[in-house]
Amino acid sequence: MYNSLGTRFRKTGSSYMQPKNKFPLILIVGPTAVGKTELAIQLVERISGEIVSADSRLFYRGMDIGTAKPTREEQARAPHHLIDIADPDEILSLAVFQHKAREVITDIHTRNKIPFLVGGTGQYIRAVTEGWSPPEVEPAERLRGELERIKEERGTHWLYEKLGDLDPAAAEKIDPRNYRRTIRALEVILTTGKKFSEQRGQSESPYHLITIGLTRPRPELYERVDQRVELMFANGFLEEVRQLLAMGYSPSLPTMSAIGYRECVRVIHGELSEEQAKAEIRRATRVFVRRQANWFKESDPNIKWFRVEEGAVDDIESYIRGMLNVVK
Q1: Is residue 4 pLDDT above 50, yes or no?
Q2: Which of 65-69, 189-193, 290-294 ranks highest by mean pLDDT?
Q3: Contacts for 219 with CB less than 8 Å, ≥ 6 apart
Q4: At what angle do helices 156-166 and 141-154 cross, to 10 degrees?
Q5: pLDDT tens digit string along 149-168?
Q6: 306 falls in which pLDDT band (50, 70, 90)?
Q7: Rounded to an integer, what distance in angstroms lies between the CA atom of residue 50 and that of residue 48?
Q8: What is the SS3 assignment for the chain?
Q9: What residues contact 241, with CB distance under 8 A and at least 6 apart?
Q10: Whole-structure pTM value
């Protein structure tokens, strides 16, 4: 049995692996600095696909070095989508991203290409693949204002600890630095009396999902993180942040709270030395790597994990072709 992409779904027993009306979507997931970008490009070059970015840091124009955005050369090797689609002072909501990503994926399918959803932002991937949607709770402005006041008086970490007390599952999925998401979760909990983690809508995936997980030994991954931080500063990370500030983008913007940008602002304001900033970025990135593991676990039977090493791209290509049973 074939679909319009020339994909044949293998029969097992009395049923097919995937309903014929579901088009394939290949996910490439894994922690920061594991090597998703290069490997995804190589696979797309081999399998006639296109890349849809699910990394929320890559949405914003002018934020290139600090986000390890694919270079122009890399983007020329394979079509990329949902990169540079907003200015740093625009907030691209989960719902907007979900809509844009699904539009792009449909367009890729209509052109008989294979979409690769690539990224490390778990909630954005799940929004596309599982139909996640945020709780339908109207903003409670007075409560939000009170939580903002508490944040100013007691700090973001205090609010995050309160969220951990009320809803550990939600706290596990939220970056402690992201106070806006922390406040929203608390707002929903306090307004409804129900856990935030239990209110997210979810539906069956509209796609035939093939999920590839990339992994490296943790010491090797940390070494790559350290190398990336050094390279970012060598390539002009501080200058990039100075340019964003000169363009009028406030350091208090949610986008400017991304790992690295806040530290660079503090260097520019004389609050940190460059070496202190590098150390802070390395520490925060390692924490983020551990948090990413909560989204995509190596024990998940729906993820096929590959160690990134010599020959890995050949093994992954073979696995994908086997799952799709592509007719050459």
Answers
A1: no
A2: 65-69
A3: none
A4: 120
A5: 888 888 888 888 989 999 88
A6: very high
A7: 7
A8: CECCCCEECCEECCEECCCCCCEEEEEEECCCCCCHHHHHHHHHHHHCEEEEECCHHHHECCCCCCCCCCCHHHHHHCCEECCCCECCCCCCCHHHHHHHHHHHHHHHHHCCCEEEEECCCHHHHHHHHCCCECCCCCCCHHHHHHHHHHHHHHCHHHHHHHHHHHCHHHHHHCCCCCHHHHHHHHHHHHHHCCCHHHCCECCCCCEEEEEEEEECCHHHHHHHHHHHHHHHHHCCHHHHHHHHHHCCCCCCCHHHHCCCHHHHHHHHCCCCCHHHHHHHHHHHHHHHHHHHCCCCCCCCCCEEEEECCCCHHHHHHHHHHHHHCECC
A9: 66, 261, 264, 265, 268
A10: 0.78
Token pair in block for residue 7: 């994909």
Return the structure tokens found at 230.
Answer: 């050094």
